[in-house]
Specification:
heterodimer; A: 369 residues; 2 domains; 15 helices; B: mainly alpha; 6 helices
Chain lengths: 369, 161
């Protein structure tokens, strides 16, 4: 039973039924919203500082200790800016698009388990819900691209669709690997069954899921839809002021949401020795986010055809093979001996990665992919 | 509680459906269709069909709507909206016939309401129904093959000679 349900039962003894039904929901929404907004603000500061370190410069360090108040100043600046709507754009859709991008990302947090029982709603179909809801933001990005009445924005919108559709398949296939081992779709059960984190049991699945989600949240090196050097700023080229802030918030919210999902699915969620569970969960989120920032500062952006080839020729076959291996192991290996599985899976992961990396070899006479 | 939610959802669904038909702007009509898919998922939730609701969002909002929107991109002269075509009268007749048939079926069928409480969790029952003994695995697979054949047929039809 989750904490909110216990709260509801306790309230029902002193308050009328409808109040006891609504109050825990409102409290839960406020807590989740506060968590998301605060963490996103910290993440923005953290990414800018970290990027500064990676690029051998300082990053924002003036406002407050170590520049921690810089995101708040940025937010104020963005709020005060003029809101410009293109004259020939579709004004209603232009206004609606940032909302359609941002709301699904908030909805993902409804099934993130922060601690034992500390989950807004322990849905029976938790992980399918995450996949379903996160695919809605593609519609929002498409709306932004269409309503802007701008060629660059429309190109970005088309790229988003191609990217989302291609990378959804490997992501879902690697999730099935996890679900096969757990035997449940519920997020809290996925965490509770990880005595050994799934990153050790299924290293290949983790890599595929990680790369796929980085592509879905449109971060470098997969940020083709805002590729500044080709299509200026992509789908939010015609956005300013508060609407642009919503997109910006949505981008970091997406990164935070998927850091939570990766930590839950593959890193053991809130489980960990000594420290309290919520601290472990935060440590894991920040670790995942750091790797994402690290990728951004290290790898150059892919070309469109390379991006598609990477999804269809590399990630998808590897995900299918990974699923077969995991299914076979779940059927035939005794559950008492997980270490055989670890050895076998690491061997498979390294062999497959080597094989496919030869397929993408640059140089050696073949420069194109 | 569920009654209020159901009536709100039903009203919004019908409104969105009417908007899909009557809006001139094709893109906005497509967006209304997406919204319609969403509210239907909401109705599934009120019926305790959580898996069905999530799959509705995943397939209809996440995939089919995107297909429809991309199809709009490929439409010629989309800025003119959707003017009424030459086949206005036959379309009206066929539409009215279809509506009449559906109304007749809905009215004349005795809708069976089960007294059994909804199953919890639903995923186990769906899995058993699909993969268990005497399950619906074969019909589902045949439906998938049929859809694949339709996709291939569409590609053959529009391929440039």
């Amino acid at each position: 039973m989750t904490l909110l349900e216990q709260f509801q039962l306790w309230l029902a003894t002193i308050w009328p039924e409808w109040a006891a039904y609504i109050t825990p929901a409102i409290v839960g929404i406020v807590v989740v919203l506060a968590f998301v907004l605060l963490t996103v603000i910290v993440f923005i500061w953290y990414e800018r500082r970290l990027l500064g370190r990676f690029q051998i410069r300082l990053g924002p360090n003036r406002l407050g200790p170590e520049g921690i108040f810089q995101p708040i100043a940025t937010a104020l600046k963005v709020l005060l800016k003029e809101d410009i709507v293109p004259a020939k754009g579709d004004k209603l859709v232009h206004w609606l698009a940032p909302v359609v991008v941002f709301v699904p990302i908030l909805l993902i947090f409804a099934v993130v388990p922060f601690d034992k029982g500390a989950i807004f709603s322990d849905l029976n179909v938790g992980i399918v819900y995450v996949v379903a809801i996160s695919s809605v933001s593609a519609v929002g990005i498409y709306m932004a691209g269409w309503a802007s009445n701008n060629k660059y924005a429309l190109i970005a919108a088309l790229r988003t669709i191609a990217q989302m559709v291609s990378y959804e398949l490997p992501v879902v296939l690697s999730i099935i690997g996890v679900v096969l081992m757990v035997g449940s779709l519920s997020m809290s059960q996925i965490v509770e069954s990880q005595n050994i984190p799934f990153i050790i049991l299924q290293p290949l699945g983790f890599v595929i899921f990680f790369l796929g989600t980085v592509a879905e949240m449109n971060r470098c090196p997969f940020d083709l839809l805002e590729a500044d050097s080709e299509i200026v700023a992509g789908y939010h080229i015609e956005y300013s002021g508060m609407k642009f802030a919503m997109f910006y918030l949505g981008e970091y919210g997406h990164a935070l949401a998927y850091s939570c999902i990766i930590a839950t699915l593959f890193l053991g969620g809130w489980q960990g020795p000594l420290l309290p569970p919520i601290i472990w969960f935060l440590i894991k989120i920040v670790a995942v986010f750091s790797v994402i920032v690290w990728m951004r500062s290290t790898l150059p952006r892919l070309r469109v055809d390379q991006l598609m080839a990477f999804a269809w020729k590399c990630l998808l076959p590897m995900a299918v093979i990974n699923l077969f291996i995991v299914a076979a192991e779940a059927l035939w290996l005794p559950e008492a001996l997980p270490w055989i599985m670890v050895v076998v899976n690491f061997a498979f992961a390294s062999i497959l990665t080597l094989l496919w990396s030869r397929l993408f070899a640059l140089g050696g006479g073949r420069v194109e992919v | 509680m569920f009654d209020i939610v159901f009536w709100i959802l039903a009203a919004v669904t019908v409104g969105a459906a009417l908007a899909v038909v009557f809006l001139r702007d094709v893109f906005r009509a497509a967006l209304c269709l997406v919204f319609l898919f969403f509210t239907i998922a909401g109705i599934y939730i009120t019926l305790h069909a959580d898996f069905l609701a999530v799959v509705q969002v995943l397939i209809y909002v996440g995939a089919i709507s995107i297909l429809i929107i991309v199809a709009i991109m490929l439409t010629r002269e989309v800025w003119r909206g959707s003017p009424s075509g030459r086949l206005r009268i036959p379309a009206l007749v066929v539409g009215l016939l279809l509506l009449g048939m559906l109304m007749f079926t809905a009215m004349s069928t005795k809708w069976h309401i089960s007294d059994v409480p909804p199953q919890e969790p639903t995923t186990t029952a769906i899995g058993a129904g699909l993969f268990g003994d005497g399950g619906f695995l074969l019909p589902v697979e045949i439906a998938a093959v049929l859809l694949l054949a339709a996709v291939l047929g569409a590609i053959v039809l529009i391929r440039e000679k």
